[in-house]
Amino acid sequence: MSRTLIKDAMVVNEGLVQRASVLIENETIAGIFESDAPQADTVIDAAGKWLLPGVIDDHVHFRDPGLTHKADMASESLAAAAGGVTTVFDMPNCIPQTVTLDALNDKFSHAAETCIVNHSFYLGATHDNLNQIEKIDPSRVCGVKLFMGSSTGGMLLDDRDSLKALFNAAPVPVAVHCEETSIINANMERYTTQYGSEPPVKYHPLIRSEEACYASTSKALDVAAGTNVHLHILHLTTAHELELFSNGPLQGKQFTAEACPAHLWFTDADYSTKGTRIKCNPAIKTAADRDALRLALTDGHIDVIGTDHAPHLLSEKQGGCRTAASGMPVLPYSLPAMLELMERGILKMTDVVRLMCHNPAQIFSIKERGYIRQGYKADLTLVSRTDQGYTVSDADVPNKCGWTPFDGDEFHWRVCATWVNGHTVYDNGHFDTSIKGQPVKFKRL
């Protein structure tokens, strides 16, 4: 039996911060000790550092298979581990799209050989794969991904009858991208008439507008009402949408909401300096929207932080509103970015852990992960703070695409180490790629 003791850390868990030592035996947490820590084969002095549960990212695009020139399961799981992320849920818009159970099984097999963090995969919803969705194994599959906005390939699904059928059939949570395509298309026509075939990127949030987001989100919630589906609305970007959600306790919520670090960090003013690096769908919007999202992190309207990590090569980000690729690589800086918001007084470290670790585990009914508890899997991350801060640089990212939207920004928090199922997969810039993550298990009826 292998025993590792992480000694004298500030342990952040379930609303508390306390100095303690955590004992790992093989893959699990064997105990939390405020004093009289036991002997261990390996002792890690964590004094002056903070120990958190491993981050659960419910929203990543690892681009594997089919788009591996810009990202793949191996490279992006390294980026996840470097950012303290120990579990990822990967999206279906790869090539081929993950819209059949065979494609889903292929992803699980590939991840077992290449992914150093724990994982599950969404099955994409189409007009003709309801029979596949009905056969999902709820103990193995995180959810169904629904695109209710402009999408490639056949995963756009927004008519009310098809939505109702999906919501009634899905045995797992349905995660939804909400933007109204007809509004986007009308806006694009208006802006191309005025500014030519390639409107500058500063108009992106006016084309993929607040109105387009609100119309789609309100439609999704309206159709889902009266069904038993758990609807999880991804990447909220507007203050107006927040009005559609309850700020009550997470337990019992039918509708939950995710925010992304990029929408909590940037505003439309940043297009002037960051350009298409911060072009994503839904678009980054106004400072008022960003500030409303920040407030919602602590008032109960936002339930989860997910990254929407979506790598592209910088060469694919050239152009404007029409041709520049939408999406950005957010790992491995999602946790440091959220801790930087804590640094600015926007939320507490216990809020960061609740939104990035506990709540994803609860919403998706993850078995034995997301908390620092005896008997749970030892998915952990150790972070530290530096008074002088440091500047984020493209040169430092492990992502295959080689850049980050946070390039040039100043942070004070770093991830020091990450444990996945008790194994040290990341340690101050060094990775152990011999370790592979596990498929996530879900405790659903």
Structural summary, described in words:
With 445 residues, the chain is an alpha/beta fold. It has a domain at 55-363: Alpha-Beta Barrel (TIM Barrel), CATH 3.20.20. 28% of the residues lie in helices and 24% in strands. Helix 4 (160-169) crosses helix 7. It starts with a strand and ends in a 14-residue tail after the last strand. The model has no long low-confidence stretch (mean pLDDT 97).
Question: How many strands, which pairing sense, and closed or not: the largest β-sheet?
Answer: 9 strands, mixed
Report helical residue fraction. 25-40%
CATH level 1 class label of the domain at 55-363: Alpha Beta
CATH topology of the domain at 55-363: TIM Barrel
The helix tally amounts to: 13
CATH superfamily of the domain at 55-363: Metal-dependent hydrolases
Integer average pLDDT = 97
Q: What structural class results from the helix and strand content?
A: alpha/beta
Strand content: 15-25%
* Count of individual beta strands: 17
What is the level-2 CATH architecture name of the domain at 55-363? Answer: Alpha-Beta Barrel
Coarse shape? globular
Gyration radius (Cα, Å) is: 21 Å
The H-and-E topology, N to C, reads as: EEEEEEHEHEHEHEHHHEHEHHHEHHEEEE
Our measurement of the CA-to-CA distance between the termini, rounded to an integer number of angstroms, reads 33 Å
Instruction: List segments where confidence is low: pLDDT < 50 over at least 5 consecutive residues.
Output: none
